[in-house]
Amino acid sequence: MDIPAKPSTHNMSGWTQDELERIDTAEELQLASRRANGGLHSDVTMWVVRVGDDLYVRSAYGPDNPWYRRATASGAGRIHAGGVERDVSFEQADPGVQADIDAAYHAKYDRYGPRMVGSVVGADAHRVTVRLVPRADHT
User: Fold this and answer.
1) CA-CA distances (angstroms) from residue 39 to 74, 103, 131?
2) Is the pLDDT of residue 130 over 80?
3) CA 106, CA 33: separation in Å to the nearest integer?
4) pLDDT attached to residue 137
5) Which pick of 29, 73, 88, 111 has the fewest CB atoms within 10 Å?
6) How far is Cα 38 from Cα 58, in angstroms, rounded to an integer?
7) Distance between CA atoms of 137 and 75, rounded to whole angstroms?
8) Residue 120 CA: distances (Å) to CA of 79, 127, 129
9) Which residues, including other chains, have CB under 8 Å from residue 37's CB and lie 6 or more apart?
10) Which helix (H) or strand (E) holds 118?
11) For residue 22, is it left (φ>0), alpha (ψ between -120 and 50) or beta?
């Protein structure tokens, strides 16, 4: 007898559809990078966008922004947004998705004006784009 497979609530990115929707509709995300001793740095508030089944953040002030330096050095941390709390890994975004990420920032945040959105779109922002990948050992 064949037992039908139970439909998965997780997609290939590791996020559930509920998590993606809740984080995507959140105005902001809090991100804390992991310290060498396993603790967390203080939360930093930032914008977050969804492209397909992936979530991205960008450093509005370039590669020297302290949160960005800590996140890329540690490679891991925790995010909070839309009622979702999740341990994540920080990965460099695929160059092929950068235009879609720009479009997602424009669609979600253009109401704040070109100066604000301009800090997170374009070639300079592409270099500091972080893909948020949920960790299997999340809390």
Assistant:
1) 11, 35, 21
2) yes
3) 26
4) 62
5) 111
6) 24
7) 14
8) 19, 10, 9
9) none
10) helix 114-118
11) alpha
pLDDT single digits (tens) 3-58: 333 333 445 679 999 999 999 999 999 999 999 999 999 999 999 999 999 999 99
Exposed / middle / buried, residue 13 (Cβ in 10 Å: 0-12, 13-18, 19+): middle
Tokens read off for 40: 């967390």
DSSP category for residue 40? B
Q: What's this model's pTM, rounded to 2 decimal places?
A: 0.89
Q: Could you tell me the sign of the dihedral formed by the alpha carbons of 99, 103, 105, 111, in that order?
A: positive
- Report yes or no: 33 and 77 within 8 Å, Cβ to Cβ: yes
May I ask the CATH class of domain 17-134?
mainly beta
